[in-house]
Amino acid sequence: MKLLLISIVVGLLSCAVITRPKGNTLTSVRITKLFPDIDQRGKFKGFDTTIVDLYFYGDFRIYRMPGRQDTIMNGLVQSLGMVDGYLIHHKDSLYGRMFHQTFREYNKRVRIETDTYITKFSDLHLQEVFEGMNMQLLNSRSSKDSGTLKEVYHFMYPVDTSQKGILSLNYSHEFDNIPFHLSPYIDSIKDNKLYHYKMITFGRPVAKYKIVLDTLVASVHMERINNPHKDKIMELIEMYMKDHSR
Hints:
Low-confidence stretches: 1-17
Strand content: over 45%
Structural class: alpha+beta
Mean pLDDT: 80
Shape: globular
Largest sheet: 12 strands, antiparallel
Helix content: 10-25%
């Protein structure tokens, strides 16, 4: 049985000295991405859903993410469905460690760029949208008391004007202490933390493929995890420390 969780280019070993965290607070969020799946005719079939849990403890980051478990039968690879894996990473190390959800280690060391690794799951290329589309702000509402902001834009591709839609963005200072950004670009220009956004792309004909695309919706949402299972996270950190001290 083979667990296919991740494929990342392996680099040189890090020589950083990593110490056990003391007296740190565990914070955690869940990132949920809904991305539309379409058939060959451009018709909406359903959502491809990706969920990633992020845990932050001192200088450690732990990611709980989906992976596919496969087996080989009669010389053919057959999927056994989705399982969860954990990737733990210390900010002073080039490497993270991959664990199965039952904490049985697969002895897998992977090189990781912390700030960009999870972003690839959650970013729908907002910077490219803002820089490449004609953007028109339709509505903006803010609350100083709650520290929230909501913006709604109409966007249109400058070349093919049939490619257009609506983008809504929700921000909140509630997530300021989370060392992660759904979109570093957006957060940097708004001085607030983006926690939810939804992109509606209007249906349109695509002459090249002789199809008519349905109106499609994609969204990304970040929310706090109320019960972050601290015991499990601490167990993972201990396993990481034992491996790193070898």
